[in-house]
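Write out structure tokens for Cell cycle checkpoint protein RAD1.
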Amino acid sequence: MPLSAQPPGSAEPYLLTASLDNARHLSSLLRAVHFQDHATCFATVNGLRVTVEDAKCVQANAFIQAEIFQEFAVQEQTVTFRINLSVLLDCLTIFGTSSLPGTSTALRMCYRGYGYPLMLFLEEGGVVTVCKINTQEPEDLLDFDFCSTKVVNKIILQSEGLRKAFAELDMTSEVMQITMSPDKPYFRLSTFGNAGSAHLDYSKDSDLIEAFHCNQTQTNRYKISLLKPSTKALALSCKVSIRTDAQGFLSLQYMIRNEDGQICFVEYYCCPDENITEEM
């Protein structure tokens, strides 16, 4: 494959090199977190994490494990840079978003370090395109500190259950209210839109729920404008883990299986709009 060789003029070693036989595996995951123009990329020996934030209220992370790549090499403990995600996606899809049957766009990605551009070498049908994308100084990001010991409630359900909720609930509502409880209603999603209140309940024994670990009753509201970007990841996913901590911070972790059956994850963190106590 033309992209397997070291790119020309590379006397200085690259801190990050990564190769993919199919660039769509990367571009589809990046589109799932593309609700702001800029993203911060973190590369470690475990793989690549791409983080997008908005107004210090919502954060999205796309995790692409090293095993997804045909080649993945990092020369430092962590390689970090900020990049224009819109430009990166345009480059990854420079040959179009849908290839002919049996063809795919091969990708080699290289980064020399601070001050250097991210280099993309894309090849399809014998045609190679080289893209250089300027990188920027990384900005400080929120640490939602969602370690397992701080999780109060956790539910894992098939994604079709959450897709149904987003389709049926009134999205003219400013907030979505999420109730998680060891007792009835167990798991309830509510909206308060122009047509009035709407509720969708899931029993802990529902066929859609694969795991139910609720320790205490929590009812929190979240701005729908902050939740809507996560529907991109929801559309690609097969399962979703919904977690809350004691402060009502929300984690939505989507499990996504690519065309080759490999598993990746996209996670959204969202601050609560308000904490409320409700009589059940």
